Each structure stands twice: as C-alpha cells, then as structure tokens.
Amino acid sequence: xASLSPLxxxxxxxxxxxxxxxxxxxxxxxGAAEAIAALREAGKRIAFVTNDARHAEEDFVTxxxxxxxxxxxxxxxxxxGATQSLLHDTRPGRTAFVxxxxxxxxxxxxxxxxVLNGTERSAHAEVVVVAGNDDLTYDDLKQAVLALGRGADLxxxxxxxxxxxxxGLWPGTGxxxxxxxxxxxxxxxxxxxxxxxxxxxxxxRLGPGxxxxxxxxxxxxxxxxxxxxxxxxxxLTGGTSxxxxxxxxxxxxxxxxxxxxxxxxxxxxxxxx
Length: 273
Hints:
The protein is an alpha/beta fold. It is built from eleven helices and 15 strands. The radius of gyration is 19 Å and the shape is elongated.
C-alpha cells in the first residue's frame, strides 16, 4: 500500500465527514475504503462525523462495514445523537413536535421528551425539533409554525442547505428549516456543524493529538473545524465545486475559515495524488 502524503503523516488523528467525503448516496467516494485502511495501518486514529440525522448511529456503522470500512458505534458522532444529548440536558420532561424520521423521533423520546406527533396536541408542543426528512409534508410545516407561534423553542440538527447524491445536490435540513424560520420569524438553535460540538465530541473520543478534519463543505466542515480550533482539508467529491474551493483559498481579504488543503477526493488527500 502506498505511503501517506506528507500532510497526513503530520497528524495523529483524522475526523472524517461522511456524506460527500466517505460516500455519496450509497456508493463510496473513489478509493475511500482503501484510504481509511491506509490511515489506520499508519496508526492514525479515526472518527466519523455527520450532520445527517435521518438514521440511527447503528445504521451508519452498518453502512461503513458494507462499503468496506471497519467501524464501531464509538467511532461515529451524529447530529441526531448530539441533539438527544442537548434535549436531555436542557429540556427533559417537555413536549415536542419533531420534523424528522422515525430514528429522530426515537432520539427525542429517548432524551426524555414526550413526542406529540400524530396527536391533536402537536401544535401545542413546547419544543419544535427540525431534522432531515425525505417525507416532509405541508402539515409538518404548519404544525411546527403553529407551535412556534405559541412560544415553543426551536432546535435544529443543522443548516445544511443541501446534501450530495449521485445525480446532484438534494435539499437538506437547512432548506426545511428556512421555511419554518421564515414563516415563524424565529431563529433555531443549531446543534450540528457549523457549530463545533460534534468535533469536540469526536476529540473527546479520540484523545489528545494533532487532528485534521476532512470534509466536503466550506460552510459546515471547514467552518466547524475553525470554531473547534482544528485544521481542515476540503475534498471535492461532495458539496463544493472547484471554483468555490479556488475562491475560498484566494486572498480576498475576508476572515472566513479556509482549508489548509484541497484535494479531488479523500484518497487523493491521503496519498497526495
């Protein structure tokens, strides 16, 4: 197996974004499994992080194994799990209306909240939780906005406007959240990236060492890494184009976070090709 690039050799551990970096849809990015195996063979510690709150952590572990990547539950940090922790710590015993999948409803319930979805009291929930949901309906938006009009808190897993799929970018949680914020005049508390919490949890699990984040989004991965005080590299297999990456790396006088490196893929970053 080829040796690691000089960049990767200089880090002790790597935090890998999943959607757009390790996989797109149900397929791995080119050489991803081999690149991750090479990192581990070189003694690098690895954590996987995602804003995708549509699935349970176990589902991500299963998918990684199916794509040829060994992983355990302890290796995976999700916005859904972080949202559960936040709600458990700050809003136990309250009622909630959840825009999300069955997995997200389970996370909210496990946090100690009473989920009102499907009841006559949905519009009277004390907390509205917004996550990704491929089966979104107008009634979901309506119940959320009615509850917010009555004073409910608004919590969302992310502001990701899109997520990468093989045929292009699909609307993400941020697109759903934008409709709710516009209609309600409220601003959500964000749990996932670009907030630093997911990366801080990953760091707690990895332990001390020089850390590199690898992600595909400037506004989520690179921004969250900067907030957490971690270096970030950008790969072009997901939500960022070559033109956007070139602009981000340019000296335009802005103070926005910049990646320390840009590569065509995770594999190209790992091997320097």
